[in-house]
Write a structure and sequence with these properties.
The complex is a heterodimer of chains A (113) and B (113).
Chain A (H helix, E strand, L loop, with lengths): L3 E4 L2 E4 L5 E7 L5 E8 L3 E10 L2 E4 L6 E3 L9 E3 L8 E9 L2 E7 L3 E5 L1
Chain B lengths: L2 E3 L4 E5 L4 E3 L2 E3 L4 E8 L5 E7 L5 E3 L5 E5 L4 E6 L8 E9 L6 E2 L3 E6 L1
Parallel strand pairs in B: 2-12
Antiparallel strand pairs in B: 1-4, 3-9, 5-6, 5-10, 7-8, 8-9, 10-11, 10-12
The chains are: A mainly beta (113), B mainly beta (113).
Chain lengths: 113, 113
């Protein structure tokens, strides 16, 4: 079955450490997105990518980095510069001709030790 | 920039009762509007969308929403809810010329017997 796979499901970060969240899709979608979800805050866009080797900052990109070397993969690195990284991270993808229909992964819960 | 306000953070309702989840948006340009649902520990999935045409939009699971341009609203309704409708509901907006979605903070619908 086609879909989006996020791993790991739970991740712990030590202070000063960079961690990378994985997102893989086999839907042949061109666009991929990273959202951060905090209780009572809804979803906020971190980064998105319309095509391989290209990506744009969202509303809260500071302290995060991404790469898009392959169409199927859009990993998110939470750097030590992100002072409040504890959140639920959701990856999504969409076809370029149907951008409004996002397909979401099941998320990664990141916590700080 | 466009934004979305979901007026209720929590909506408790009895099974088989009608429900309305409110959403207002602000934008100086034409927008597309969406409702997404998130079941516990899962990603989001699209319930319905308004792109153009009829202002009454029907979605999955018996939900519908009405686009009201004069009131800048896109409220979600269901005439009779089930226990299984218990979830978090997100309203989202995108500029016609834009790319990524902006989400509201979410409304938690709790259906009890």
């Amino acid at each position: 079955d086609g879909g989006i796979t996020q791993s790991p499901k739970y991740l712990f970060r030590k202070e000063g450490q960079n961690v990378t969240l994985s997102c893989e899709q086999n839907l042949n979608h061109d666009a991929m997105y990273w959202y951060r979800q905090d209780p009572g805050q809804g979803l906020r866009l971190i980064y998105y990518s319309q095509i391989v080797n290209d990506f744009q900052k969202g509303d809260i990109a500071e302290g995060y980095s991404v790469s898009r070397e392959k169409k199927e993969s859009f990993p998110l690195t939470v750097t030590s510069a992100q002072k409040n990284p504890t959140a639920f991270y959701l990856c999504a993808s969409s076809r370029d001709r149907e951008k409004e229909k996002l397909f979401f992964g099941s998320g990664t819960q990141l916590s700080v030790l | 920039a466009q934004s979305v306000t979901q007026l209720d953070s929590q909506v408790p309702v009895f099974e088989e009762a009608p429900v309305e989840l409110r959403c207002n948006y602000s934008s100086s340009v034409s927008v597309y509007l969406f409702w997404y649902v998130q079941y516990p520990n899962q990603g989001l999935q699209l319930l319905l969308k308004y792109l153009s045409g009829s202002t009454l939009v029907k979605g999955i699971n018996g939900f519908e929403a009405e686009f009201n341009k004069s009131q800048t609203s896109f409220h979600l309704r269901k005439p009779s809810v089930h226990i299984s409708d218990t979830a978090e509901y997100f309203c989202a907006v995108r500029k016609n010329s834009g790319y990524a979605l902006n989400f509201g903070k979410g409304t938690s619908l709790l259906v009890t017997p």
